[in-house]
Design goal:
Elements: H1 6-32, H2 36-77, H3 84-124, H4 131-166, H5 169-184
Helix pairs in contact: 1-2, 1-4, 2-3, 2-5, 3-4
Amino acid sequence: MSERSATDELREEHRSAILQMSQLEAALGSLAGSAQRAAAEVKSSIKARIESLRGHLFLHFRKEEEGLYPEVQRMVAEGAPRVDIMTQFFSQAADSDLTAHHLLRVRLREMQELAEGIERCTGEAGGRAPVGPVETLRSLVSTSFDLLTRHIEKEDGLVFPMIERLLEPAQMEAAAARMREISRQPA
């Protein structure tokens, strides 16, 4: 078995996503009150931060959806011992997690589109970021941060501990191996 379990790796990615999202919020705060020259610098930083966060979370979601969760679903489908409570819980939790993944994917795409629009407008407005789109982006980042935080708290505090108790070491290693393969695939 590898040193880090599949759930350990996913938890580390959760911490990274929270850090990236908080840095994005801080950069947006700088954009709203910045001078013309600083606006251009922060604007490009925001776009890069969104692209980085988007890539990070899209890969992370794939690791959960295609790496870890199939192992749990297989165990539930086979009616393995110790899964009585997992069957109902996981079907509901998985639906909720997949919904959160979908919403966050949509919101990250919207953030990227807004950032690109701000970049275009800033060039047309002599370097000053337009207030309306910046406020819309700030609001979208804030609500997405809340959703991401709740989602992570549920997975780290409830879903992953249950998975760790129910999966055998070989099943966790199989999930970790699939996650490594997913990480090697092009985006």
